[in-house]
Amino acid sequence: MTLRHPLRTAFLAISLSALALIGACNKAPDTETVAPAPAAPPITVGTQVDDTVITSNIKSKLVADDLVKAFDLQVETRKGVVQLSGFVDNQAQIDQAVSIARSVDGVTDVQNSVTLKGAPTTVGAKIDDATVTGRVKTVLLADPDIKSFDISVLTHKGEVQLTGFVNSQNQIDLATRLASETEGATSVKNELMIKK
Q: Are 150 and 51 in contact (CB under 8 A)?
């Protein structure tokens, strides 16, 4: 038997394996004390691919743009809804990032969670922020009630920013509490959204 498209077949096999692995990772814990989170509305393989393409296109355009290219902006997409987050120097950069995101095919809405930095930070502060980000990610990953792979964490001068799409308000509240209790976090800006 000859395969006409071996790369397409290999890609499909890898994609299906990855989706099966993701599905296994999302299994609720087997304990009686944890109330199961309401299931998020289903998302198809085609929608996941579309969302990935949208995210990639936005990131490419942001990097290519002279006004915003040097800034670390997070881009999350679910069913065409794009969430932008991160820290930038001025409002013009926020406006440009939102405009770029809206210009990409397939985008149905843009949620702007980008924050202004304020005064410049020192190298020590950047290292401290990276440490806080790592601690928050570790705490979220360790908690069985949070799907931490759906949450992006950024820190600037101790302010922790949480963005992404989660299953319930309980997960949003728990993520906020865990981040605020993390050593080095001075405040938490929670921009998490419930999956629709």
A: no
